[in-house]
Design a protein that fits this description.
By secondary structure, the chain is an alpha+beta fold. The protein has four domains: about 5-45 and about 55-100; about 120-265, Sandwich (Immunoglobulin-like), CATH 2.60.40.3960; about 270-340; about 350-440, no CATH class. It contains eleven helices and 17 strands. It has helices spanning about 5-45, 55-100, 185-190, 295-300, 305-315, 315-325, 330-340, 385-400, 410-415, 425-435, 445-455, and strands at about 120, 130, 145-150, 165-175, 205, 210, 215-220, 220-225, 235-240, 250-255, 255, 260-265, 350-355, 360-365, 370-375, 380, 410. The strands form five sheets. The protein has a five-stranded antiparallel sheet with strand order 16-15-14-13-17, with helices on both faces. Strands 7-3-1-10 form a four-stranded mixed sheet, with no helix packed on it. It has a four-stranded antiparallel sheet with strand order 6-4-9-11, with no helix packed on it. Strand 14 (about 360-365) and strand 15 (about 370-375) form a beta hairpin. The relative contact order is 0.07. It is found in: Nucleus. Its main location: nucleus. GO terms for molecular function: calmodulin binding; DNA-binding transcription factor activity; sequence-specific DNA binding. This is Calmodulin-binding protein.
Length: about 475
């Protein structure tokens, strides 16, 4: 509390006075005690051997004289001490009542009706980690965009001098403003900037400035020269702020990205791919370390690529879960599956025909997910199946998985080799399959449909069993 030092000084004096008065009171009590004992001893005519021995008369007299001297001294000193204590207490109370709050605790300034409230904002999400020497990019290799926003309206500022401002790109500590409160001060923002370690190159190199155009800017080529393992949070953030000389007199709040780790480029050899490719080695998936125990289990089961992983995940998720075993927890299993499902599929299609006429069959995509039914030479997508067709699909999928060696990979050559009286209808049916197939279709959407129409497919709960 403000003024605490003054209080300590003032009341220190009062404390000394209190000690003095306490000593005086003790001496008075001693004097009364001696006087009382003398009176009692004189009144007691019969000596009692059991009573304690009385003090000598000379010592009693000396003590009495001392008390009298102190009493006379205190009588003359008392008015002076009272005046000093009174003045000090009054001065301290006056000082305390007149103290003002520090400037740092002053209430926030109320924004006037004509004032602007602007803020920079990153529109691109960052990946969980980057590598030294590599280009700084957003999630999935996206360019990093920043915009100038009017906080009151939420719209991008596209006109005025502010919309063409120059920005500086800086590196921030990963734990800066974790509570996501955007109302920081410029001083607070700058106090969390990270500079290069002593003897090291600049932490961030490349195009360290951005020019807004109609309120939108894109970060140029940037690269980190050092990892983030040496700071407390072990992560960095990118930040942008208005370059000095621009937007004078206007407070434009700075922007920050999500926190991300920066690793040495040597670790790039072992990095995960976002999203993974079908031909990627299976250890590129989250939670599967290269040459680790889980990786070795998968290789032993002839699952060497992401494509192999996804195909078994579709055909028999319980078998895949058992292969990984208790070394992969439920959470790890979920993370690995979600990462695998972000894989972009190719355009291959597979058909399982029930007979040599090729009049009835089921169509699968690249990772053996059900795409639809061929009935009477016509393709019917999952959404259009009636009740009887759903039952038919159920049994056909079981047969296809049990006899996968009979599944035909569809392409133009296979179609041309299947010449018969019904080839024209079948060609048009397969053509419909192609037109309805989106190579970039999400796996999770197809999987949910497959579980809806195929009762024999294991339930989602089976994907998390046998986890210990």
């Amino acid at each position: 509390m403000y003024g605490s030092v003054r209080w300590v000084s003032n009341f220190g004096k009062i404390g000394i006075v209190g000690v003095f008065w306490g000593k005086m009171e003790n001496l008075r009590n001693k004097k009364r005690g001696y006087e009382q004992s003398i009176v009692e001893d004189e009144a007691n005519l019969v000596p009692d051997s059991k009573k304690s021995k009385l003090p000598a008369l000379a010592s009693v007299i000396v003590e009495a004289l001392k008390v009298d001297s102190l009493q006379r001294f205190s009588s003359s000193l008392e008015p002076l001490l009272r005046r000093i204590v009174s003045e000090e207490v009054e001065r301290a109370l006056t000082k305390f009542s007149n103290d003002k709050l520090p400037a740092s605790t002053s209430p926030p300034r109320i924004q006037g009706p004509g004032e602007k409230d602007l803020q920079l904002h990153f529109k691109t999400r960052m990946p969980p980690h980057l590598f030294t020497g590599g280009k700084v990019e957003g999630d999935q290799g996206a360019a990093i965009h920043v915009v100038l926003v009017d906080v009151n309206s939420g719209s991008i500022v596209q006109t005025g001098l502010e919309s063409a401002a120059k920005l500086s790109v800086v590196v921030l500590e990963g734990d800066f403003n974790e509570e996501d409160d955007d109302d920081w001060t410029q001083e607070h923002f700058e106090s969390h900037e990270v500079k290069a370690r002593e003897g090291k190159r600049p932490l961030l190199t490349g195009d360290l400035h951005v020019i807004l155009k109609e309120g939108v800017g894109t970060l140029g080529s940037l690269a980190f020269t050092d990892n983030s393992s040496w700071i407390r949070s072990r992560k960095f953030r990118l930040g942008v702020q208005v370059f000095p000389g621009y937007c004078e007199g206007i407070r434009v709040r700075e922007a920050k990205t999500e926190a991300f780790a920066v690793k040495d480029h040597r670790g790039e050899l072992y990095k995960k791919h976002y999203p993974p490719a079908l031909h990627d080695e299976v250890w590129r998936l989250d939670r599967i370390a290269k040459d680790g125990a889980l990786h070795k289990k998968l290789i032993k089961a002839d699952i060497s690529t992401v494509e192999d992983f996804l195909r078994l995940l579709v055909k028999d998720p319980q078998k895949l879960r058992n292969i990984l075993g208790s070394g992969m927890s439920n959470r790890m299993w979920e993370n690995t599956m979600e990462h695998a499902k972000t894989c972009v599929l190719g355009g291959k299609l597979y058909v399982y025909y029930t007979d040599e006429t090729h009049n009835t069959g089921v169509v699968f995509n690249h990772i053996y997910e059900l795409r639809g039914l061929i009935a009477d030479g016509q393709f019917v997508s999952l959404e259009l199946l009636n009740h009887n067709q759903k039952i038919s699909v159920d049994s056909l999928v079981k047969r296809a998985y049990e006899n996968w060696h009979q599944v035909v990979e569809y392409d133009g050559k296979v179609l041309n080799s299947l010449t018969s009286s019904k080839n024209a209808n079948r060609a048009s049916a397969v053509s419909i399959v192609d037109n309805n197939y989106d190579p970039n279709h999400c796996i999770s959407t197809i999987q949910s449909r497959q579980q809806q129409y195929i009762s024999s497919e294991p339930s989602p709960q089976c994907q998390t069993t046998n986890n210990h």
